[in-house]
Every structure is written in structure tokens, then in C-alpha cells.
Amino acid sequence: MPHGDPDPTDPMTLHGVVVETEDDSSVREMAECFIEEYIRTGFEPSRIMEMFRKREYAGPHLAYHALGEEAIRAMLDQHAALRAYRKPPAMMRNASGGLSLRILE
């Protein structure tokens, strides 16, 4: 297969679909996934909220626009408390100068 010419029978080819829903549950779930991922990575809640506000972050901004700031902030507060948000960075330098990742709990 030539480079850049996708094979329609390849099961690993990425396909996007639109799924219509009657409520905002799918957008809410997507927002919670973003929040959980970034909290676990070690991002500060204020930094995550800024991501939701900026148009450059299409998925989070879509959720921000659909659900509103209050709903996003409530989810962010809930996940920050649930994950016992701590200030330490996700990556830290060890004694030998290499990078080490904080283990997700």
C-alpha cells in the first residue's frame, strides 16, 4: 500500500463518526475524561480551566460552550478532590538526572 493512501479494509485506520444524543451526557462524559486525564498528569485545576476556555483546545472548548463554566468548574472541583490534587509535577528529575514519572494512584 502506498504511503498516505489508506486501505479501506485496514482495521487500524481511524474513522470518525457523528453520534447524535438527546442530552448533554456525552459532552459531560468527554469533559470529565479531559479533566481526569489532566488532573492525573499533574496539571493545576486553574490551568485545566484555562484550557476549557480557549478555542485552541477544540474538545474542551466544545464542552465549555455546551455545559457552561459552572458545570465545568464543578466537575473540576470534584475530580481535584477525588484525586487529592497535589502540586508536585508529573515529571521530576531523579538523582542521576533522568526523568521519572509520578505513579498514578
For the biggest sheet, the summary is: 2 strands, antiparallel
Mean pLDDT: 82
Number of helices, where a helix is a run of at least 4 consecutive DSSP H or I residues: 4
Taking strands numbered 1, 2, ... along the chain, how are they ordered across the largest sheet?
A: 1-2
Fraction of helical residues: 40-55%
The chain-level structural class is mainly alpha
What's the SSE pattern? Answer: HHHHEE
Distance between the termini: 43 Å
Which band does the percent of strand residues land in? 5-15%
- Low-pLDDT segments: none
Total beta-strand segments = 2
Provide the number of structural domains: 1
What are the salient characteristics of this protein?
105 residues; mainly alpha; two-stranded antiparallel ribbon; 2 strands; single chain; 48% helix
Give structural notes.
The chain has 105 residues and is mainly alpha-helical. The chain is built from four helices and two strands, in the order H-H-H-H-E-E. Strand 1 (91-93) and strand 2 (99-101) form a beta hairpin. The protein has one domain.
